[in-house]
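<context>
A single protein, sequence plus fold
<sample>
Here is the protein in question:
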Amino acid sequence: MAWHTLADEELLAQCEVHAFRGSGPGGQHRNKTETAVRLVHLPSGVTANGADQRSREQNLRAALGRLREKLRRLAYRPPPRRPTKPTRASKERRVSDKKKRGQVKAMRRGSFE
Protein backbone atom coordinates (compact mmCIF):
# COMPACT_ATOMS: atom_id res chain seq x y z
CA MET A 1 0.00 0.00 0.00
CA ALA A 2 1.11 3.58 -0.61
CA TRP A 3 1.30 4.73 2.99
CA HIS A 4 3.76 7.47 2.08
CA THR A 5 1.02 9.31 0.13
CA LEU A 6 -1.34 9.65 3.11
CA ALA A 7 -1.95 13.01 4.77
CA ASP A 8 -0.02 13.72 7.99
CA GLU A 9 -3.03 13.14 10.24
CA GLU A 10 -3.93 9.82 8.57
CA LEU A 11 -0.33 8.61 8.78
CA LEU A 12 -0.06 9.65 12.44
CA ALA A 13 -3.27 7.75 13.20
CA GLN A 14 -1.51 4.55 12.09
CA CYS A 15 1.52 5.24 14.29
CA GLU A 16 2.52 4.87 17.92
CA VAL A 17 4.18 8.07 19.14
CA HIS A 18 6.80 7.77 21.89
CA ALA A 19 8.43 10.79 23.51
CA PHE A 20 11.81 10.31 25.15
CA ARG A 21 14.87 12.24 26.28
CA GLY A 22 17.28 12.88 23.47
CA SER A 23 20.95 12.15 23.88
CA GLY A 24 23.94 14.20 22.85
CA PRO A 25 24.97 17.79 23.49
CA GLY A 26 22.49 20.26 24.93
CA GLY A 27 23.18 20.24 28.63
CA GLN A 28 20.56 20.52 31.31
CA HIS A 29 17.71 21.48 29.00
CA ARG A 30 18.22 18.40 26.83
CA ASN A 31 18.58 16.12 29.86
CA LYS A 32 15.38 17.33 31.57
CA THR A 33 12.87 17.47 28.73
CA GLU A 34 11.40 14.66 26.68
CA THR A 35 11.31 16.36 23.31
CA ALA A 36 12.71 13.57 21.13
CA VAL A 37 10.02 11.62 19.24
CA ARG A 38 9.95 8.07 17.91
CA LEU A 39 7.22 7.03 15.49
CA VAL A 40 6.40 3.34 14.99
CA HIS A 41 4.25 2.65 11.95
CA LEU A 42 2.13 -0.26 13.15
CA PRO A 43 1.05 -1.78 9.78
CA SER A 44 4.62 -2.02 8.47
CA GLY A 45 6.76 -1.98 11.64
CA VAL A 46 8.96 0.84 10.32
CA THR A 47 10.34 3.28 12.91
CA ALA A 48 11.65 6.83 12.59
CA ASN A 49 13.21 9.17 15.15
CA GLY A 50 13.28 12.93 15.44
CA ALA A 51 15.63 14.44 18.03
CA ASP A 52 17.30 17.29 16.18
CA GLN A 53 15.34 20.26 17.52
CA ARG A 54 14.42 21.60 20.95
CA SER A 55 10.70 21.46 20.25
CA ARG A 56 8.65 18.28 20.36
CA GLU A 57 6.43 19.57 17.55
CA GLN A 58 9.45 20.16 15.28
CA ASN A 59 10.87 16.75 16.14
CA LEU A 60 7.49 15.16 15.36
CA ARG A 61 7.47 16.80 11.91
CA ALA A 62 11.07 15.66 11.30
CA ALA A 63 10.25 12.08 12.35
CA LEU A 64 7.15 12.14 10.15
CA GLY A 65 9.23 13.21 7.16
CA ARG A 66 11.78 10.46 7.80
CA LEU A 67 9.01 7.88 8.22
CA ARG A 68 7.40 9.00 4.97
CA GLU A 69 10.76 8.64 3.17
CA LYS A 70 11.31 5.13 4.58
CA LEU A 71 7.79 4.09 3.55
CA ARG A 72 8.33 5.52 0.07
CA ARG A 73 11.52 3.46 -0.32
CA LEU A 74 9.73 0.39 1.02
CA ALA A 75 6.90 0.78 -1.51
CA TYR A 76 9.22 1.25 -4.53
CA ARG A 77 9.04 -1.49 -7.11
CA PRO A 78 11.47 -1.29 -10.03
CA PRO A 79 9.91 -1.39 -13.49
CA PRO A 80 9.99 -4.83 -15.15
CA ARG A 81 12.94 -5.50 -17.43
CA ARG A 82 12.23 -6.53 -20.98
CA PRO A 83 14.83 -8.62 -22.79
CA THR A 84 16.07 -7.18 -26.08
CA LYS A 85 17.61 -8.91 -29.07
CA PRO A 86 20.68 -7.74 -30.97
CA THR A 87 20.01 -6.11 -34.34
CA ARG A 88 20.92 -7.78 -37.60
CA ALA A 89 23.64 -5.19 -38.26
CA SER A 90 25.26 -5.82 -34.89
CA LYS A 91 25.25 -9.58 -35.54
CA GLU A 92 26.88 -9.04 -38.93
CA ARG A 93 29.47 -6.73 -37.37
CA ARG A 94 30.28 -9.32 -34.72
CA VAL A 95 30.71 -12.09 -37.31
CA SER A 96 32.91 -9.95 -39.55
CA ASP A 97 35.08 -8.90 -36.59
CA LYS A 98 35.50 -12.57 -35.64
CA LYS A 99 36.51 -13.44 -39.19
CA LYS A 100 39.07 -10.62 -39.26
CA ARG A 101 40.48 -11.69 -35.92
CA GLY A 102 40.70 -15.31 -37.11
CA GLN A 103 42.58 -14.20 -40.23
CA VAL A 104 45.09 -12.25 -38.10
CA LYS A 105 45.67 -15.33 -35.96
CA ALA A 106 46.02 -17.56 -39.01
CA MET A 107 48.64 -15.20 -40.46
CA ARG A 108 50.52 -15.29 -37.17
CA ARG A 109 50.59 -19.12 -37.22
CA GLY A 110 51.91 -19.09 -40.73
CA SER A 111 49.21 -21.30 -42.13
CA PHE A 112 47.39 -19.92 -45.12
CA GLU A 113 43.96 -21.44 -45.13
Q: What stands out?
A: Helices lie at 8-13, 27-32, 56-75, 88-109. Strands lie at 15-20, 36-41, 47-50. The longest strand covers residues 15-20.
